[in-house]
Amino acid sequence: MPYTVPKLSDFSAPALDAAMRELLSALDQESAAVVSENDWKAFRDRWMARKNGILTQINDLWLKGAPGPSKRDVGQLVNALRLLVEDRVPKARGNFDTFEDVVGHPTLRGSVGEVIALKRKRTAMVASVDITLPGIRRPIGAEHPVIKTMNEIVGVFRNLGYSVEEGPEIETDYYNFEALNFPPNHPARDTQDTLFIAGQESKPLRDRLLLRTHTSPVQIHTMQKMKPPVRVVCPGKVHRNDALDATHSPIFHQVEGLAVDTNITFCDLKGTLDHAMKALFGSSVKTRFYPSFFPFTEPSADVQISCIFCDGKGVRDGAPCRNCKASGWIELLGCGMVDPNVYGFVDYDPARLSGFAFGMGVERIAILKYGVDDIELFFQGDVRFLEQFG
Ligand code: PHE
Asked: Is residue 105's pLDDT more than 60?
């Protein structure tokens, strides 16, 4: 007697178990009896036909007929049986998929050993998967140009023996300003349009939270936990309340550098940054140090590189170079010798130690290196832009 799906009146666990066992034994017997393509088609339709296949019947007779409290259990059982049948029906083809079928297959001709191995594999796997089709290629993604540039900058300094330090993006006033020699209310604070966290007024000024405006606070964290000699680079994200335009974004990235030891001089600073700029932009690039001011370095300088678009000539294709405003130089980063006042905040001995620090904007360097004309492209997540850096 061929199996027929019983109508259930008892939905208790033992009754469901018995119904399941009966169905599975029928599935076993019928799948073993498949010996030809025609058998298999009939077998498939009997179990899987949408209209009145056994799967549809158990759905109608068991699940739809189940009383409310049993619905969940019956639903799980029906789902599990569906998965099982969907797995077993294609496999039944392996019963008659003969040696000759495989040997005769134009693309699969091979040694007897290979054919047997292949046949085992086909029966073991789900036989409906056509292993001769090309695979699905998944897009693997690409490094974001900002991260790529940041890694490149960090790599240049790692090769010089620097290690990497990171610090928090939400900082206190103390680390972002005070310990870097920006006294409260000092006008130098105005150069860093700061985004403050709201509701901090009840705290003492130095404990109030803000989004760090530069990576320089990592200098302080580093010197607090490390004894000299120190040689670190600190990559990270920073925020300023700048209006968005082609070269300014309220969110951007910097790489900070700090070297403190005995006998470090401005010559070391110049040599280090000259080397770094040549490593990043090519060996023909020249550097120039222009007097500047930062509260935490003394003396301070802005570093300019010879314009990479006009080779420092200020003229390109007979017209004034737009990239360097015809000056031949492009301003790229800030630096200087660590101000002795800063050592006072971290218990370093200014009589014995000296050092230099520098900070560079990652987007600015990426814009120059890759010829990007709008900083916003880095933050819009447009795959057509990002793909180009893969
Ligand atoms: N933190 C400074 C800025 O963001 C750059 C800087 C870093 C200058 C280190 C000197 C030394 O403007």
From this structure: no
